[in-house]
Specification:
Blueprint lengths: L2 H5 L5 H12 L2 H13 L3 H29 L3 H8 L6 H33 L8 H13 L3 H18 L3 H27 L4 H9 L8 H14 L6 H6 L8 H29 L10 H11 L4 H35 L3 H21 L14 H28 L2 H8 L8 H29 L4 H4 L1
This protein binds tryptophan.
Tryptophan (TRP) binds next to helix 2, helix 3, helix 11 and helix 15.
């Protein structure tokens, strides 16, 4: 497909927000956020995560939008154009590599959601207790073939959409479907919060116990801020290039960030009261949502239908995210190497799917095999989320803060001086300091903290 078509961009304000929010809101909010919150001890982790979102995530999103809209290109091309041939393009390149790693395991979990639609249709959970539901999950993900088939089905859907460039259709649909997901989550919240013993879950989420937070937890919170907002990988650069010149980039980034954060917190509120009420281990890992929510559905009149809809919507939320990941790779191959869009799509999706297979097998047949002491799944996730994405975000922050002239940034953020509102001007001032100093320094501190660089000083 020609570049001209893509560069037409999003047609309306709400269209941009829906597309960028579609990318941001996905498994990260509903599957990953709850389980890493559980693994890292709850409220204290959430507070650090919220600080990372505000001080690092939001400014980096503004920075990525700025890069993309200014350059009107894919992630690598954008850095190359604005960085006038300097080494900055490596930042875009890093993003393409990260995209391969993330989508490899993202596709596996998204495959699980499809299976859960089928479980729900078959009314599989209704007569089951906690132990049985968790056994069902454990049994399914450890099978050698079936989860891979669902992964392939999901990746086929993803490729299909990127292949035909019908993102617009999907985005139009998600404008209706995602609010529906929000309604379902709210209903789940109400039911979960009224379960016996729900308050323990509420406290777990909102009463910080700092002793439970480790250096790893802080790094995970940072990594997740990038993951959930689709940052540090070129996605928001690519999407920024589709945003019309008259839109306000700062306020767009703000809306997307708020929507993403609200959904994550509401998902946590649906899950943790149930975790405590049903006696599930909060640190149960990637299965947490899949083991907990079916039990909440069991407690709701009409839970049978809600469960079907919920997992369908979750699969669709994953799809609007996965297309944005694959799009980074395809836009790069298409624009930089002039590889035909369908060849690029199929080639990239095939390689990514193959890369994902060991992460699936790691839950069963290959559970003994480790990389850096982690199973394949965690190794991919930790490498991408906790290292490559913060690094990619750091590059974006340094590039916008120091690599290009501030006049250019200001011109882009004010739409060439058109936007003169007080709020916008103040926001740009705050942005200037955050992107130049606070965000880069914060990322570096977290990296050093994790490496134990401060132990010597503190001890
Ligand atoms: N943000 C998505 C989620 O929360 C996942 C995602 C989409 C992503 N595009 C990304 C993560 C780019 C990192 C980078 O599910």
């Amino acid at each position: 497909m020609s570049n001209e078509v893509k560069r037409d961009g999003f047609g309306s304000k709400i269209g941009i927000i829906a597309a960028a929010a579609g990318s941001a809101i996905g498994l990260g909010n509903i599957w990953k956020f709850p389980y890493i919150t559980g693994e890292n001890g709850g409220a204290a982790f959430i507070l650090v995560y919220l600080i990372c979102i505000a001080l690092i995530g939001l400014p980096v999103m503004v920075a990525e939008f700025t890069i993309g809209r200014r350059a009107q290109k894919n992630a690598v091309g954008s850095y190359r154009t604005l960085g006038s041939g300097g080494p900055w393009f490596l930042g875009g390149f890093l993003g393409v590599i990260t995209a391969f790693i993330i989508l490899a395991y993202y596709g596996v979990v998204a495959g699980w959601t499809i299976k859960y639609v089928i479980f729900s249709l078959g009314n599989n959970f209704s007569a089951m207790n906690t132990g049985e539901i968790s056994e069902l999950f454990g049994d399914f993900i450890s099978r050698p073939v079936e989860p891979i088939i669902y992964q392939i089905i999901f990746m086929a859907f993803t490729s299909f959409i990127v292949f035909f460039g019908i993102k617009t259709g999907i985005e139009r649909a998600s404008k209706i479907l995602m609010p529906l997901l929000l309604v379902l989550i709210l209903l789940l919240d109400i039911r979960a919060l009224t379960l016996p013993g729900a308050s323990a879950g509420f406290n777990f989420l909102f009463k910080p116990e700092w002793s439970r937070l480790s250096a790893t937890g802080v790094l995970e919170a940072l990594g997740h801020a990038f993951f959930t907002l689709s940052l540090g990988m070129g996605t928001m650069i690519t999407y920024g290039s589709y945003i019309r010149k008259k839109e306000n980039l700062v306020s767009t980034a703000f809306s997307v960030t708020i929507a993403d954060t609200v959904i994550a917190l509401l998902a946590g509120l649906a899950i943790f009261p149930a975790v405590f009420s049903f006696g599930v281990e909060p640190g149960a890992g990637p299965g947490l949502v899949f083991v907990t929510l079916p039990q909440v559905f069991n407690q709701i009149t009409g839970g049978y239908f809600m469960s079907i809809f919920f997992f369908i919507l979750l699969a669709l939320a994953a799809l609007t995210s996965s297309i944005s990941i694959l799009e980074v790779v395809v836009a790069y191959l298409d624009e930089e190497f002039k590889i035909k869009r369908h060849v690029a799509t199929i080639g990239a999706a095939a390689v990514i799917t193959l890369m994902g297979i060991p992460t699936s097998l790691g839950f069963g047949k290959m559970s003994g095999v480790t990389l850096f002491g982690y199973n394949f799944f965690d190794a991919y996730d930790k490498l991408a989320s906790n290292f490559l994405m913060p690094l990619g975000g750091l590059v974006a922050a340094l590039f916008v803060g120091w690599g290009i002239k501030w006049d250019i940034v200001e011109d882009e953020l004010t739409n060439g001086g058109e936007l003169k509102g007080k709020v916008t001007l103040v926001a740009i001032k705050i942005f200037k300091h955050t992107i130049r100093f606070i965000a880069p320094v914060a990322v570096l501190i977290v990296f050093l903290y994790k490496l134990g660089a401060f132990n010597a000083i503190i001890a």
